[in-house]
Amino acid sequence: MTIGIIGLGAMGLGIAQVYAQAGHEVLATDANAEARGSAAARLARSLDARVAKGAMTAETRDAVLGHLRVADRIEDLAPADLVIEAVVERLDVKQAVFAALEGLLSPDAVLATNTSSLSVGAIAAGLSRPDRLLGLHFFNPAPAMRLVELIPHPTTAPDALAKARSLTEAAGKTVIQCADRPGFIVNRCARPYYGEALALLSEGRSAAEIDAAMVAAGFPVGPFGLIDLIGADINLAATESLAAAMGDHPRYHVFPALKAQVASGNLGRKTGRGFVFPDPLPPAPSDAAAITLRIEAVLVNEAAWLLAEGGTTAEAIDTALRLGLNFPRGPFAMLAQHGRDAVQTTLAALETAAPPGLKGRYLPAPDLRP
Question: Is 187 noted as a catalytic residue in this protein?
Fold first, then answer.
């Protein structure tokens, strides 16, 4: 099979590496001549690092590099069986890319968007064959992260879904199908991890003690450490985008502390200081279990709301959160661990105590109601 990639930034090049490592011929292009010209060297540097660590042989590196061909024009992608775009997150740009591609490819070729925030159905609108388009949402860095979210829109053809799934699973990824809704699974269900930590911060708890509590509960990094890793500006943009897409429901409230952090310029690791970076975490506070229960109860509730909307399963949500965010357990495993009574009681207490602007934030999903 021949795989086409449009966009040779870090994500697009990473996706190209995934399929090249699986033995596919990869045709890749970018509108930017500099990105095209540097792609092979950037991939070689990435693979050389793996060879140096002993994670890849020199022969495998050479084979992977041999599977990548950088094309000057989008027309050169005509032989591709599957084309994935990883361009800027703008609906008009993505629609234009697919409109240009559609007439070049064979009728049974699959078009895939790597969007993390746009409606797959909206991207397909206007195509003469919208049934050939779907979402394949890789996580960064694509070669290392096992999860890929597979997103059909209402008219995506079953054979297109099957082809995208089989090619991606054969490349070593765990493919989870989800509905074409804002945030898909991971980006939507991740919001409470950050949001409830910010709620605690607004109540006077320190970012460091909140993170220490979550790390003590088995999370590899606390919510503020994760914001620092991602970048507070990136996290704010994602939070605001999902809040707008969900009608500014209180569950997606954009907390002032996050806006203030971005305004301060202390965005996290990339600027040298964030909410907690670079300071070491203190010991977990004495009420660490209560902090963990609160954040996990809100995570459970968001996952339960998503499940109630259809298009996915509890097992898929748990797997997606474990693989996409490296959580030690998914929301429904959290529910089993804490018990329904503890989660229901926690949500009820939070809703009772919620300030006027957050009323409704903690109302339980249908399956969590007493």
Answer: yes
Residue type, 63: A
| Identified catalytic residue from 85, 102, 149, 302 | 149
List beta partners, residue 4.
27, 83
Choice between 31 and 117, residue whose per-residue pLDDT is larger: 31
Of 286, 268, 285, the closest CA to residue 277 belongs to 268
Contact residues for 319 (Cβ-Cβ < 8 A; gap 6+): 147, 174, 176, 330
Tell me if residue 75 is catalytic: no
C-alpha span between 232 and 267 (Å, rounded): 5
Q: Which residue out of 114, 116, 119, 301 is catalytically annotated?
A: 116
Closest-CA residue to 159 (of 233, 220, 81, 65): 81
For 111, the 3-state DSSP assignment is strand
**Omega within 30 of 0 (cis) for the link into 282:** no
Catalytic residue, chosen from 137, 153, 253, 338, is 137
Using the 8-state DSSP alphabet, how is residue 285 labeled? P
Contact 266, 207 (CB under 8 A): no
137 classed as catalytic: yes
Is position 149 annotated as part of the catalytic site? yes
Question: Torsion angle, CA of 119/120/125/127, rounded to 10 degrees?
Answer: 160
Look up the pTM and report it. Answer: 0.94
Catalytic residue among 114, 187, 241, 301: 187
The tokens for 189 are 């269900």
Max Cα-Cα span within the chain = 63
113, β-bridge pairs: 85, 135
pLDDT of 248: 96
The number of residues making up the chain comes to 370
First to last CA, the chain: 52
Per-residue pLDDT tens for 257-271?
999 999 999 999 999
Name 167's Cβ contacts closer than 8 Å, sequence gap at least 6. 1, 3, 19, 22, 24, 81, 82
Q: Sketch out the chain's domains with CATH numbers.
A: 2-177 (3.40.50.720), 186-368 (1.10.1040.50)
